[in-house]
């Protein structure tokens, strides 16, 4: 160990030793200050815009702060920063051309961070892909679909696409589409549907259920019956109300028609003459 120390002293000029000591102090103090600043930044941003967005902000701030610490250390050592900045500028241009997609995703992520169209835990529909947001990162967002698949969506795609945030509001409406026979009394049908909604504990009283006659179909009068439910109860309401409507219609004798197809029977074989 002593021989290694003596060899380092022989290699490193004596006048550099104070600079190395100052640089080491700047490095240690700088790293501690950066870590403390990032911890405070995470807590403040997390309280305002959520923990996942706070992590993205902390990553960006961490890159900037650690870069400043590195510049301060190099300055203490005596490195010519003007030449280094010139080389870094050329390198930045080269990296910028090579990573345009990544830069676009980072910038798009900053726009999404400011707009906040969704948070972790929301359910999104992005161009037909439906899933729950499990992480928001600097370059992309990860969705977990209902069949437990992880889908990575780049931030640029999210910024350019029409995003449907299914769970943004606390209540949701479900539209039940029904066809009833032309001989049925629509007033009676509406009364039965309202009774079904009133007996279902998952249906909300406000907003009230809505009965809409959509028009006349080929074999039925088409009806839309819209009911509202709290967001956590939506799927359960959707799974139960159809069975309740079917049971109520059977009890009241309301017929739900369906298209019928018949076979055309030819009694005798066709005779074909070739002239």
Q: Can you walk me through this structure?
A:
- This protein folds into three domains: about 100 residues, Orthogonal Bundle (Helix Hairpins), CATH 1.10.287; about 50 residues, SH3 type barrels, CATH 2.30.30; about 80 residues, Alpha-Beta Plaits (2-Layer Sandwich), CATH 3.30.70.100.
- It has eight helices and eight strands.
- The termini are far apart.
- Helix 2 packs antiparallel against helix 3.
- The chain is α+β, with helices and mostly antiparallel strands.
- The mean pLDDT is about 80.
- The protein has a five-stranded antiparallel sheet.
- A hairpin with a 4-residue loop joins strand 7 and strand 8.
Write a brief caption for the model.
52% of the residues lie in helices and 19% in strands.
- The number of helices is 8
Poorly predicted tracts of residues: none
Number of strands: 8
H/E element string? Answer: HHHHHEEEEHEEHEEH
* CATH class annotation of the largest domain: Mainly Alpha
Q: What percentage of residues falls in helices of 4 or more residues?
A: 40-55%
For the largest sheet, list the strands in their spatial order.
4-3-2-1-5
**If you compute it from the alpha carbons, what radius of gyration comes out, rounded to the nearest whole angstrom?**
34 Å
User: What's the rounded overall pLDDT mean?
Assistant: 79
Structural class: alpha+beta
Distance between the termini: 116 Å
Shape designation: elongated
- The fraction of residues assigned to DSSP E strands is 15-25%
Q: Tell me about the largest β-sheet.
A: 5 strands, antiparallel
Second rung of CATH, namely the architecture of the largest domain:
Orthogonal Bundle
At the fold tier of CATH, the topology name of the largest domain is Helix Hairpins
- In the residues, how many domains can be counted? 3
